[in-house]
Request: fold
Amino acid sequence: MRKFGLAFALMGILATGSFAQEIKFEEYDLPNGLHVILHQDHSAPVVVTSVMYHVGAKDETPDRTGFAHFFEHLLFEGTQNIGRGEWFKIVSSNGGKNNANTSDDRTYYYEVFPSNNLQLGLWMESERFMHPVINQIGVDTQNEVVKEEKRLRVDNQPYGNLLKAVKEKMFTNHPYRWTTIGEMEHLDAATLEEFQDFFKKFYVTKNAVLVVAGDFQKDQAKKWIADYFGPIPAGEAPKKLQYEEAPITKEIHATWEDPNVQIPMLVSAYRTPSMKTREARVLDMISTILSDGKSSRLYKRLVDQEKKALEVATFNFSQEDYGTYFIYALPVGETPMSDLSKAFSEEIKKIQTELISERELEMILNKFENDYVNSNANVEGVAHNLATYYLLYKDVNLINNELDIIRSVTREEIRDVARKYLNDNQRLLLEYGPEKK
Reply:
């Protein structure tokens, strides 16, 4: 389900231009407070039924981490009307597919069916919402599943604890300081009642959005939505706690030992603003300048010219409350980490003091426009984006306005944002290396 690649899924291939088609949608609220978004697309006979809940790892407590991700698994166990182990069988036998994923900010569930099975998709998601079976058998079963996932994707994966190593140093107060998958001892210690209470608190109508996208008839869909989701009791949205971090004003140094790696890694990380800000988009663009492709500045310098790094990458890990900007490199041979750190600083300094060329800006804008169009290239992507813009950005119209923001970014903004957030005294320098004998 949730995955973190070494390169944090860096941006795709540069394009010279794209055409963004307007995404039309309708939104309304059910009497119980559930927000509904409908997007019709008759180009293919498929339909997506999805529900995004405004609950993630940041809604947990320090001694009970991993709950949000645990529910991503637990809520496939079954319901009062769907037998244990039957969920995936029902989906596959009706020509569909389904999945779920969790972040620090939200949890997302979806089914993709042939369009003649919209009613089935709506019924299944309403069952998950209203009638889940949360019992000890399911908790024990999924506890083992999550433990195995953590072993495979984190504990036994090279650089698998990189995000944890950074987060626990970048945040001292905010729940972003722990990882989405959490700590297994917290899940082991939790009682069945704690899991049931977590569901009751966060899986409520005013803390979710239902999106239906694809080939369907709107009147019929609205009737089924009212039939299946209307009876869910209205629940109050949980109060979202606000956490603030003091600015980082002095360079932080840290180390992490990983028995699964042989080549050390240097990570430079900076705390950045919410993904909802214009500045977060600009930071994404700075990543493209520094490390996207073989002609990017850090790659060209450290990998091609100086041959001091096997790999180098940057990424702005944007989240609802804060973001974290990563730069990392794997040194060649005995290359000192100080050489990599110096190169990071010098290349950022150039962006802070010299405007990028008009040509560079044009290429960046073309690439981001292409990425935007690709993210809406099918109904699965549209459904996810509609839910995200509504629930996390509080502006579903961004699905059509995002390009306007991207196109309006200037060279001066790129320079100024780099000056504001990417300074040496604001960074964490982490040496993530092999376990010492």
